[in-house]
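Minutes, project check-in

Agenda point 3 was the complex the collaborators sent over. CS summarized: two entities, 1003 residues total, and the question is how they sit relative to each other. Sequences were read into the notes so everyone works from the same version.
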Amino acid sequence: MKVLVRKDAYFDSVVLMLLSRELKGRPGVKDAVVAMGTGMNLGLLASTGCTAADLAGATPNDLVIAVDCADPAIADATLVAAEAALTRRKGTGGTGAQGVREPATLEGALELVPAANVAVISIPGAYAAREARKALDRGLHVMLFSDNVTLDDEIALKTYARSKGLLVMGPDCGSAILNGKPLCFANVVRRGPVGVVAASGTGLQEATVLVDRAGSGISQAIGTGGRDLKNEKVGGITMLMGIEALAADPGTKVIVVISKPPAPAVAAKVVAALEATGKSAVVHFIGLAPAAAAAGSRVRFAANLEEAAGLAVAIAEGKTYAPRMFAQSDAEIAALVARETAGMAKTQRFIRGYFTGGTLADEAWIALHALTGAVWSNNQTDAKFVLADPKTSVGHTVVDLGDDVFTVGRPHPMIDPSTRTERIDAEAGDDSIAVMLVDVVLGYGSHADPAGALVPSLVAAKQAAVKRGGRLAVVASITGTPDDFQGYARQQATLEEAGIVVMPSNYQATKLAVRIMEKVVANAGGAR
Amino acid sequence: MSGVKPVTDLFASELSVVNLGLESFAENLRECGAPAVQVRWKPPAGGDARMIAALDRIARSTRVDVEAANALAAERILKSKPMLIGVGVALDVVPGMKPNMVLHSGPPVTWERMCGPMKGAVIGGLLYEGLAKTREEAEKLAASGAIVLEPCHHHDSVGPMAGVMTARMPVWIFENATYGNRAYCTFNEGLGKVLRYGAFSDDVLDRLRWMETELAPVMSAALALHGPIDMRSLIAQVLQMGDEGHNRNRAGTSLMIRELAPFLVRLDEPREKIAKVLSFMHANDHFFLNLTMPSSKCTVDAARGIEGSSIITTMARNGTDYGIRVSGLGDRWFTGPAGIVDGLYLPGFGPADAAPDIGDSVITETAGIGGFAMAAAPAIVKFVGGKPADAINFTLSMYEITVAENDAYQIPILDFRGTPTGIDLRKVVETGILPVINTGIAHREPGIGMVGAGLVKPPENCFKDALAAFADAIG
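CS then shared the predicted structure for the full assembly.
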């Protein structure tokens, strides 16, 4: 037993207990006691093997450090360490204590911010409805990002929310912009007179981005979740509330509605609700030929997302919308087509679309459908054109890589680009591909550099085609704005430097791809 | 457009988000200048489907209004005014006390199942009463069934550690000035070898006799001169002086000395006798614990028996079991195994020496002080090797499982926020956040005494069992 007595060195007993524990934990230390020399402690130290000589003269004001080690060198080192620890403690200038509040529950969070007005919920679907209900109980609007919420739960939540005048955006709602603030996957767009209610996440993103690019802005963009209009039992509760709220919103001049084709009864309700607003409205039912506007109606139908955005901005600004296919002149487009098809091999006959945005994939599939031969996809309801194996492309294929089959156990490809690059890498050796069509979705939620992550695979595919004696055309569009943190210009430059054609919208990118394919077919015919 | 007024109101306000799930969604909003609070979400009740179903059944119950019942319980706790009104002899004043009765801490427990310190204290109690002459005699007597062993809590009483109270012992008498109910507690014996840690040697019994014959009469007389002491006011003060009323009672004991000294010196007693009383108080920081405990008991008892209330009105341990009682579930105990305290040990002792968690002192946490007021007593957080910030966080986390904030007991460092008060059984199960309890550690062998102090977690199952019973009762 080695003992050290330090005169007139008072320490709090808790500090010493801590230190004793620390010393006992050191290798080679059998026992250690650091204590003030009180009568009781001295008695105790004596009983653990300290001699009277060791403890001679120790008073309650003196510090006693006793260590029991087989190796005297370890004992000495331990005594030094004990002294050092106490010196360090004395010298430590505290900066004061501050608690960190991490509420464990919605209720706890609301105590912290009683003025909270929206709950964003992205927890596992099995629990999401329960938390959403609690949020509604407390008067919060809900953005339900979670999927795997049952239809019954969705109906119950939305019915309850409507009785309280609250919005339930979702389930499976990926995007919204409220009061200029982007929620979940959303872009930084200007504020302005166009209000959006959309049953599609990337549809909402593309439309709001294009409104911004047209020089206008967004008042509010409300997501509804995909089932809101599609399922008759849900009946478009959120869509109808969204329309009603935008109607009452003084900041909204034009209302844009975007959805996959709704249940017919729901579609009629939506149009009637828009008529009732007294405001101008633009409807885009993805994949439905636009209906003619009814006489005297302020509800117009758009054929694609770009037209929906353009029409809304024109109406908001009191201008006439001039439908057009390309931003560039016909001559410029013709030159682009000629450049991209020059040097293609005869084997190159097909287009492949690799998409991260579901609605963007839809839009591409619909626009490409006029091509000769089937266009396959994993993302549409017509059973005739569903890929037998979504993981393998055949002929013309448009694949939505955000589909559930690709996201089991890995993040959405908008977050993790490898799902898409692996697919491109795997198919780069396919000499039948003439054109690759891709989307690049920017904004909050997305990867920090999606173009940079995508380019190496596309360049490799292009080089492989050249090696085979051909030329691969790659066409892209960027869903994003200059204010998105990835930077539109930077992403565009990354793609263009790699020889990729960047078009101003997904619609235009798709239409350019169609032009290229027409030329491919014409060239093939000419050669024959 | 009134059907969507909340939506248009939202459009006209600043967006303020509560985020459950992917943290990046909250970070992105903050980056855009919108306040967003991240919830440290976990599956409710740890994902226990039976508990989630019980919680949902309770939430949907139309038979009783749990919120209203809990509001009433909280109101009764907050309005309670515990007053120290005097000193008496247990047999005379404690309801149901009998000469052959030994009261103990925690939920009911048989002699056979008692832990070491508890058995030691029962032996000591029987020797003190003269019901047995030797340890062996006392053990035989305790095992014979001739002695009635009952929890203090069944007799409006509480006791620290073993909590043993026998007929001749002097007790503090408390009365709730608002609701009239009373509570009782023995005097604290000091540290080291004491009955409450299971010691029963002659010096322990001699001290108990001195307490009976000198300390108690002196206290009684001084208190009579002073008049009733408002304990709520004293506890409010000690929380601002670094105590939390359970594991740290240094300020409280000092205040009691200040409070009583002018009246002690006025007694017609020899100077040495008074000096001995004052020295005894001075030497024992936990003198005040035996006052905060019955104050807390007196306070929460006012909230017992409210139909439909899920407020926990008793928590207590006997070294074998940890037990709770719930306002809306009458006298039923729900128990689980008493845990091992995580803490710091006195020199020469370690975890192998520790008895499981024991004592009624957790009544302080039940009433919203003790571990719940840890932010007021940052010095004691070192018992678990933590920092003052941890003390603050312990208290903050307790707001998640309580229904009210105390209007009298305030914590300076939390901007004088009231302590978290009124533990809601539903919230405990839903969040999986268990009450934070500061406590002393008894040696597992009788008669050795306190070996350390620290934090202890109650067993989760007693809360789950109680919730299932609560759902059955109101569903």
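Noted in discussion: The CA atoms of residues 199 and 302 of chain B lie 34 Å apart.
Follow-up: revisit at the next meeting once the mutant set is ready.
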